[in-house]
Amino acid sequence: MGLIFSSFIHVFLKLFFILTPFFVLSTFLVMTNDFSETERKKTAVKVTFAVLLITFTMYLFGKYIFMVFGITIDAFRIGAGVLLFLSSVSLVQGKTISQSNQKEDIAVVPLALPVTVGPGTIGILLVMAAENKSLTLKLIDCAGLFFAVIAIGILLLSSVKIEKIIGQRGLAILSKITGLFIASISAQLIFTGIKNFLFN
After folding, report:
1. Residues 148, 46: contact at Cβ < 8 Å?
2. What would you report as the CA-atom Rg of the chain, rounded to the nearest whole angstrom?
3. 20 near 174, Cβ under 8 Å?
4. The dihedral of CA 71, 74, 79, 84: what is its sign?
5. How far apart are CA 64 and CA 162, in angstroms?
6. Distances in Å between the alpha carbon of 91 and those of 15, 153, 158?
7. Which residue has the higher pLDDT, 179 or 18?
8. Considering its fold, how many domains does the chain have in total?
9. How far apart are the first and last CA of the chain?
10. What is the domain range of residue 27?
11. Which residue, 182, 199, 196, is CA-closest to 75?
C-alpha cells in the first residue's frame, strides 16, 4: 500500500509540474484581468474540464497514435523532452501570451490548449501511455493525472486570492522555479531515450 501511495505521489507531482501550474496561473490572471470574479470562476471551471478531456484523451489513446504513425517510444521520448525543454526555457524567461482585448471565451483556446496542455505535456502523456505497465500502474497514472488537473483547477479558482497574497513578482518567481523542474524532467527524458536507442 505504501509503494502504491508513493508511486501515486510521484506521478501526481511529475504531472502537476509538467502542466506548468504557476505559468498557467500567471497567464490566466493576465488574460482575465478585466473579468469579474464570477466570470473568472466560470472560466477556471471550463479550463479544468477542457484540460481533463484533452489529457485523458491523449493518455488513453496514445498507444494507438504510436501504432498509426509507427513511432518508437524512445524517439518520442527524445522529441517530447526537447519540446518540454523549450517550454521550460520560456518559463524561466517569463514569457506569457498577451492579453486579449475582448472578453471572449478563452477557456479552451488558448488557456487549456496550448497554455496548460502544450506540446511537451502531450508528448509526456503519449510516452506514459505507450510504456508497458500493469493495470495497477495505469490506474495510478490516471489517478495522478486526475488530481494534478484538479489541483490546477483549484489554483485557477483561487487566482484572485493568490494574486493578493504573493503578487505578480511572486508568481514570476514561482513560474521560473517550475521551469527549472521541467528542464530537469526533459533532460531525463532525452537521456533515457538516447540510452535506450543506443544500447537496446
Report:
1. no
2. 17
3. no
4. positive
5. 40
6. 16, 20, 21
7. 18
8. 1
9. 33
10. 2-199
11. 196
